[in-house]
Amino acid sequence: MQVISISSLKGGVGKTSITLGLASAAWAAGISTLVIDLDPHADTTTGLGIKHDAASTDIGTMLRKPKKYQITEHTVRSGWMETDEEGEPSGTLHVIRGSAKTSMFEKVTTRRREINRLTTLLEGVEGYDLILLDCPPALNGVTRMAWAASTDVLLVAEPSLFSVAGTERTFRALDLFQREYAPQLKNTAVVVNRVRAASTEHKYRLSEMRRMFGHRMLEPQVPETSNWQQIQGAAWPVHAWPGDTAATAARTFDELLKQLYDPPTTPRRARRTQ
User: CA–CA separation, 2 vs 261, rounded Å?
Assistant: First the structure.
């Protein structure tokens, strides 16, 4: 089972947009996916059409006593439609709700018991090909908890001076963390979001990032999309949104998912559905 953490050094770079875009690509491709919203703001939960008063246990509550909970008993179905426009079946997309309670674990610690809380919670999870972890926009304890449970980490950046510098620092921290606490990590990569093709500054920063990050920088970049806020506000997958702009964004996320996702070589075991 592949577990991908979507992380960023700070807020405002579109980390949640990337998470929702990848979830939409997985949904459209028929990949059985679980999204866990670790961000205290829980915007991904909202974007996936889940009400915050849903009758399910949130991730913050489960992280307090990870041995007490079977995580698959607390998933909820995404609010996204079950079929595409042609009526074809789409992929299973389940969600573990986010909440402000995850902020209790923001303190950075070196205690393995704390770092491995999410790893413990995910033990024995079956029935999913892909798990996406939407991390808080900081290098705090929750983010490191996610890294310890992941097979892959995707850093989200913007083509700006501060974001480039912050991503470089994050890679250094991630490499150190991997050696000490997450030897199972297979891949670390960066995706550049909100790119304006006509911007000279963006062209310069993209060139700079290619030199700095080499093969770790994914292609293509995600362009700035004028109606992205409208799509998220409607809690709708970009792959089902009408118009050429959304179609272009959907193709971008399809290509990114192809680079990130490693399909399982053995059939999945059936799981209980709600």
Answer: 8
Residue 99's nearest CA partner among 49, 24, 36, 16 is 36
DSSP H or E segment with residue 5:
strand 2-7
HEC letters along 28-76: HHCCCEEEEECCCCCHHHHHCCCCCCCCCCCHHHHHHCCCCCCHHHCCE
Residue 166, H or E segment: helix 161-181
Please identify which residue in the block is written with the tokens 């996204």.
80
pLDDT in tens, 129-171: 999 999 999 889 999 999 999 999 999 999 999 999 999 999 9
Domain residue spans of the chain: 2-260
Closest CA to 104 of 71, 65, 133, 50: 65
**pLDDT value at residue 83:** 53
Overall CATH class of domain 2-260: alpha beta
What's the CA angle centered on 27, arms 26 and 31, to 5 degrees? 55
Q: Which of 132, 115, 81, 125 is nearest to 237 (CA)?
A: 81
Q: How far is CA 32 from CA 78, 89, 132, 246, in A?
A: 12, 12, 11, 23
